[in-house]
Write a structure and sequence with these properties.
Shape of chain B: elongated
Strand content of chain A: under 5%
Radius of gyration of chain A: 28 Å
Number of helices of chain B: 10
Largest sheet of chain A: none
Distance between the termini of chain B: 36 Å
Oligomer: heterodimer
Largest sheet of chain B: 2 strands, antiparallel
Number of strands of chain B: 4
Distance between the termini of chain A: 52 Å
Mean pLDDT of chain B: 83
Order of helices and strands of chain B: EEHHHEHHHHEHHH
Low-confidence stretches of chain A: none
Radius of gyration of chain B: 26 Å
């Protein structure tokens, strides 16, 4: 068949198809035209066959290019991926995130051990030996810290020029700083897991050193009530980000029966769910840290909220979405 | 088929046709990134007056800094496939099967920027792009995404309506395609070059100058439309 006859015969279909594409590509029209679009897959197959015919019959390059763009636009619409993972925030936090974490519980426990064990060890060691704190922090940082949690201050945890800042300013700072650290802990996993490992260790060691040092100085009465409220969410979230990073590292070091690239892709899909959930936990922690931790509530209440926090986190991560675990 | 030597990657769809994805190299992507930095700074300048509201404003500015650092590319890529910088450079982000990038893949590729940036100025990302034949940085490899040139809607070239004339018998298919392409696009090049090309294509017949151009257009008309009325 000559090109002109072919074009003339197919033109009405191409025109229809083009109109349908325009509707699909416009999010507002997309919904309005939904019922009329049931014939789209069929039309798309027709276009594909026209395109293949045009190529195999060596019609003019211009016509082939024109058809190819149509096919490509249609392909994008027909095979548009639905983003299930983060589609509904509530669904994500209630089911998808805790489930994914439980599926990778081994990696999570490894990350938690890499974070909490050095923290506890360093805390005890610094409590025993005054000079050991300088192996992690320099003298200036230690001095800052001491002034920050001096029991004589009325707003513990907010130092120097930040003393006058409001809760909202501190909230912004905590989100930027802590969620940023969480994201970097995850990304560091791409360096064969080493980046996550190092960040977990360093953070664990320095947090432990701070806690040990302040307790030894008898500043514990200002330090512990301040950190008890947000600690459960923040520390758990950092460990989860570390687990996500280790998951990336695992795919490169021990890809199993897949290629490294395939393993990386598969693990990255799960890891990003962990990071997303951890980021939300970190934002929640920032809310508590900014609006509650430095507040005037009595110490006993603050400890109570802290203990409740740990129980909540444990119950949530262990049980949320469990009833329907087997459905998937 | 042997893999193409240019930057066109063919993805075979379930319908059995090959879609061409034209992957973009480090140069246009770097320029797009620099353009995005300008856009980010401009956005930051817009929120700066909030500093007037002391603590409350500072908090919002810090949140904006966080958003511009981590979420800016994700928001634009999920909404329209490209950040403003990429859009200006005619690029877009797609999954490696040519479908538009969605939230999970976009998050992966953008959070992993932190590693591609190491040790400084996207050193790792650049090496990865140069090693990979699809110019993917590590974030793209993990997310399964490609940065490709967006479609440029083709001008629909038409073959000029001249009296068709049969080309020599036994013309190879490649030559027929070249003749059709010449007829469609010849008007876009200079007169001298057009004649030069026409003389090469009409080589076997030995037509020269303007006659060669006319002859080729006539052949193209025959190839596209067939013999004139009443014959063949």
């Amino acid at each position: 068949m000559k090109q002109d006859a072919f074009e003339a015969a197919a033109l009405p279909i191409w025109t229809d198809y083009r109109a349908m594409l325009d509707a699909l590509e416009n999010p507002r029209q997309r919904r309005a035209h939904a019922p009329a679009l049931t014939s789209f897959p069929q039309l798309h197959r027709r276009l594909c066959s026209d395109y293949a015919l045009a190529r195999s019959r060596r019609y003019s390059p211009g016509l082939i290019a024109e058809l190819e763009v149509l096919v490509r636009r249609g392909h994008r619409q027909l095979y548009r991926r639905r983003s299930a993972p983060l589609r509904s925030m509530l669904d994500f936090m209630a089911l998808r995130f805790p489930r994914t974490l439980r599926r990778h519980s081994t990696v999570f426990w490894i990350a938690a051990a890499l974070f909490f064990l050095p923290m506890i060890g360093m805390g005890i060691a610094v409590h025993q030996d005054a000079d050991l704190v300088y192996s992690v922090l320099d003298a200036e940082q230690v001095a800052d810290l001491e002034s920050l949690y001096d029991p004589a201050r009325h707003m513990p945890g907010r130092g120097g020029e930040r003393q006058a800042d409001t809760d909202v300013a501190m909230f912004g700072f905590y989100v930027m700083n802590n969620v940023g650290i969480g994201f970097r802990t995850f990304a560091g996993g791409l360096i064969l897991g080493l980046g996550s490992l190092v960040i977990l260790l360093i953070n664990g060691l320095s947090i432990g050193a701070v806690a040990g040092h302040l307790t030894r100085l008898d500043y514990g009465a200002t330090f512990w009530p301040f950190v008890s409220g947000h600690g459960p969410y923040e520390l758990t979230a950092i460990a989860i980000c570390g687990a996500a990073g280790l998951l990336l590292g695992q795919s490169l070091l021990a890809p199993g029966q897949r290629t490294r690239l395939a393993a990386l892709r598969a693990n990255a899909r799960d890891a990003v769910i962990l990071v997303g959930g951890a980021a939300i936990l970190l934002v929640f922690a920032a809310v508590i840290e900014a609006f509650w931790s430095a507040g005037p509530a009595p110490t006993a209440l603050k400890y109570g909220v802290g203990v409740l926090g740990w129980i909540l986190v444990a119950v949530y991560l262990a049980l949320a979405g469990r009833a329907s675990d087997h459905a998937h | 088929m042997s893999p193409p030597i240019d930057t066109v990657r063919l993805h075979e769809t379930p319908e059995g046709v090959d879609l061409a994805l034209r992957v973009a190299g480090p140069a246009p992507r770097s320029i797009a990134y620099l353009l995005d930095i300008v856009v980010r700074l401009a956005l930051l300048l817009v929120v700066m007056p909030l500093a007037a509201f002391s603590g409350f404003g500072t908090g919002l500015i810090l949140l904006a800094v966080f958003g511009l650092e981590w979420l800016y590319p994700v928001a634009f890529e999920v909404r329209s496939g490209a950040t403003p910088g990429k859009r200006l450079m005619g690029l877009m982000v797609v999954h490696d099967d040519g479908t538009p990038v969605r939230l999970p893949a976009s998050l992966i590729r953008n959070l992993l920027r932190a590693v591609d940036f190491l040790p400084m100025l996207y050193g790792v990302g650049l090496v990865s792009m140069l090693v990979d034949r699809d110019f993917r940085r590590l974030g793209d490899l993990a997310a399964g995404t490609l940065v490709v040139y967006a479609d440029t809607p083709p001008k629909t070239p038409k073959i000029t309506r001249v009296e068709p004339q049969a080309p020599p018998a036994g013309l190879p298919l490649e030559a027929q395609q070249a003749i059709l392409a010449f007829a469609e696009r010849g008007h876009a090049i200079s007169e001298a070059r057009r004649i030069e090309l026409a003389e090469i294509l009409a080589g076997t017949v030995g037509a020269r100058g303007g006659a060669a151009v006319a002859l080729l257009n006539a052949w193209a008309a025959w190839l596209a439309r067939g013999a004139p009325e009443g014959r063949g």
